[in-house]
Amino acid sequence: MNATTTYTARAHTNIALIKYWGKKDEKLILPMNSSLSLTLDRFYTETSVMFDEQLKDDLFLLDGSKEKNDKISNFLEIVRQKANITAKAKIISKNHVPSTAGLASSASAYAALALAASKAAGLNLDKKELSRLARRGSGSACRSIYGGLVEWQEGIDDQTSFAHPIEMSRDFDIAMIALVISTDFKKISSRAGMKRVVETSPYYPAWVQNTAKDLRKLKQAISKNDFETFGEVSEENAMKMHALNMSAHPHFNYLEPDSIKAMKIVEKLRSQGVSCYYTLDAGPNVKVICRRKDIQAIVDRLSDSFGQEKVLVAGPGPAAHLI
Ligand code: 2P0
């Protein structure tokens, strides 16, 4: 094999509404529970991959600078094995997340890499196989293979753990407003945080049981186009995840004072009749789930307290695709 054609893929980030927080198999990245997310239009990663026999090592350029990244080389090793090739790869990746947003994510990164690398290696994977492959890079990436609402079914092994899209009615009206609280690097990565919780939180078994119930309720709310239940269940599931972190040993949490302030603003807006709910991932940034018609009122309120430049609006985004 000489140098192959370069393939470029774009994949969008996703925000989990029912969270993935713990693995039952760390090598294969099999989750303890199924999760459900919304792929977002506003934030994405574009990645180009070319395999070349002449290269001594994998070469990875992120946003223009050369990076050493063992996780990426390990992931490419999986692709090489599947495709039965040995060539190293040149990878050029660019995150399209508004600068200083602090929302860059391994989900869009590995979904784009899975699509571009598998194509460049001569593989023609269907979406299920792509989702399984992306999962090996980062769990949440298996959901970014699809657009809109997406469920990652936990499965019991490599073959059965993958994502699939959830049908939503055409008039299911949803938007997400991201409030940037901090752009600092996470003190505890998602990977380390969830591992600690699985190993030490006395509440972990309750989380697993309860999250299965939350997932059923959320899917039912989606099928009934019931936005209030959808928001309520999402918010509660996020709070349970953050409570797990505070119950770990040693305990930790991702919230900052401004996260709490924003949560209170959302609660106040809700008490005034604006249907809006919050969720937070492994960081202090608050994401508000709302209907499109309420975007302006919420953006105005958050901008008053935090500044307009901290408030970013997103909607449902597309599946990963080649460009
Ligand atoms: C998720 N989060 O479902 C969860 C909920 C944040 C909170 O960042 O170890 O980067 O690479 O599989 O996918 C998931 O962490 O972790 C995550 P790995 P990943 O989106």
Structural description of this entry:
Pfam families: MDD_C, MVD-like_N. By secondary structure, the protein is of the alpha+beta class. The protein folds into 2 domains: 7-169, Ribosomal Protein S5, domain 2 (2-Layer Sandwich); 175-314, Alpha-Beta Plaits (2-Layer Sandwich). Helices cover 37% and strands 25% of the residues. Strands 1, 4, 5, 6, 7, 8, 9 and 14 form an 8-stranded mixed sheet that branches. Helix 2 (106-120) crosses helix 3 and helix 5 packs antiparallel against helix 6 (227-246). The protein binds ligand 2P0. Ligand 2P0 binds at residues 16, 19-21, 29, 35, 106, 138-140, 190-191, 281-282.
Name a few traits of the molecule.
single chain; 323 residues; alpha+beta; Ribosomal Protein S5, domain 2; Alpha-Beta Plaits; 2 domains; eight-stranded mixed β-sheet; four-stranded antiparallel β-sheet; globular; binds ligand 2P0
Structural class: alpha+beta
Q: Number of helix segments?
A: 8
Strand content: 15-25%
The Cα radius of gyration reads 19 Å
Structure described in brief:
With 323 residues, the chain is α+β, with helices and mostly antiparallel strands.
List the helices and strands and how they pair.
Elements: E1 7-18, E2 23-25, E3 30-31, E4 35-52, E5 59-62, E6 65-67, H1 70-83, E7 88-96, H2 106-120, H3 127-137, E8 149-153, E9 162-165, E10 175-179, H4 190-200, H5 204-223, H6 227-246, H7 257-271, E11 276-279, E12 286-290, H8 295-306, E13 311-314, E14 321-322
Parallel strand pairs: 5-7
Antiparallel strand pairs: 1-4, 1-14, 2-3, 4-7, 4-8, 5-6, 8-9, 10-12, 10-13, 11-12
Helix pairs in contact: 2-3, 5-6
Bound molecules: ligand 2P0.
Ligand 2P0 is lined by residues 16, 19-21, 29, 35, 106, 138-140, 190-191, 281-282.
